[in-house]
């Protein structure tokens, strides 16, 4: 390494360095700024796009209440083309409408789509809990139990055990149902669900 003993030599060395490498430093700086600006633009674009998607979902969700085939098709198209939380919510709303019309097969289809699309653990939990309920109503008890196993997060376990108890009771496994309800009652969770579990547990005892 060269050692420069005078200030003049140091200045001359710096000048030579920038004369030789200045172009590359400038290019590197421009590229660095370009990446930063590109990242900020992408973030802004994503945020704006999400806001726009939320507005579209809100309008479509309101139109779904009419029950017209045309509006249902529009929401289905939106759900199929939207791979974010609003796409999941659209599938959940379609499933709710299908259940109201006693079309459990369609509701299961919508909930499977929601579960597969959801990236957030809580949205996955909601989708799978509703899916298990629909599968129970379809007498797909073994499938419903497997669906429950997909639900993660301590905050959802009371509901998991509540549904598990219902499934096992329907299968005729009274001891298993009693164990599920008892487990659920020992967990933290919504009191209203635990109150219903107490009633179901008492009915099993009788």
TrEMBL record:
<dbReference type="InterPro" id="IPR026039">
    <property type="entry name" value="YfgM"/>
</dbReference>
<keyword id="KW-0472">Membrane</keyword>
<keyword id="KW-1133">Transmembrane helix</keyword>
<feature type="domain" description="Ancillary SecYEG translocon subunit/Cell division coordinator CpoB TPR">
    <location>
        <begin position="15"/>
        <end position="205"/>
    </location>
</feature>
<keyword id="KW-0143">Chaperone</keyword>
<keyword id="KW-0812">Transmembrane</keyword>
<comment type="similarity">
    <text>Belongs to the YfgM family.</text>
</comment>
<dbReference type="InterPro" id="IPR018704">
    <property type="entry name" value="SecYEG/CpoB_TPR"/>
</dbReference>
<feature type="transmembrane region" description="Helical">
    <location>
        <begin position="24"/>
        <end position="42"/>
    </location>
</feature>
<dbReference type="Pfam" id="PF09976">
    <property type="entry name" value="TPR_21"/>
</dbReference>
<keyword id="KW-1003">Cell membrane</keyword>
<protein>
    <recommendedName>
        <fullName>Ancillary SecYEG translocon subunit</fullName>
    </recommendedName>
</protein>
<dbReference type="InterPro" id="IPR011990">
    <property type="entry name" value="TPR-like_helical_dom_sf"/>
</dbReference>
């Amino acid at each position: 390494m060269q050692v420069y003993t005078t200030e003049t030599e140091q200045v001359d060395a710096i000048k030579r360095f920038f004369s030789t490498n200045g172009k590359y430093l400038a290019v590197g700086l421009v590229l660095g700024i370009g990446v930063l600006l590109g990242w900020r633009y992408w973030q802004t674009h994503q945020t704006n796009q999400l806001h726009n998607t939320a507005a579209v979902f809100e309008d479509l969700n309101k139109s779904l209440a009419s029950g017209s085939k045309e509006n249902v098709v529009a929401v289905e198209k939106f759900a199929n083309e939207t791979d974010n939380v609003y796409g999941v919510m659209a599938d959940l709303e379609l499933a709710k409408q299908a259940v109201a019309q006693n079309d459990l097969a369609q509701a299961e289809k919508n909930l499977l789509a929601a579960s597969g699309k959801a990236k957030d653990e809580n949205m996955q939990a909601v989708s799978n809990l509703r899916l298990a309920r629909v599968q129970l109503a379809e007498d797909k008890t073994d499938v419903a139990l497997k669906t429950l196993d997909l639900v993660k997060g301590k905050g959802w376990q009371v509901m998991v055990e509540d549904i598990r108890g219902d499934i096992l009771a329907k299968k005729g496994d009274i001891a298993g149902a009693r164990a599920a309800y008892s487990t659920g009652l020992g967990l933290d969770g919504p009191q209203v669900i635990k109150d219903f579990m107490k009633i179901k547990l008492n009915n099993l005892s009788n």
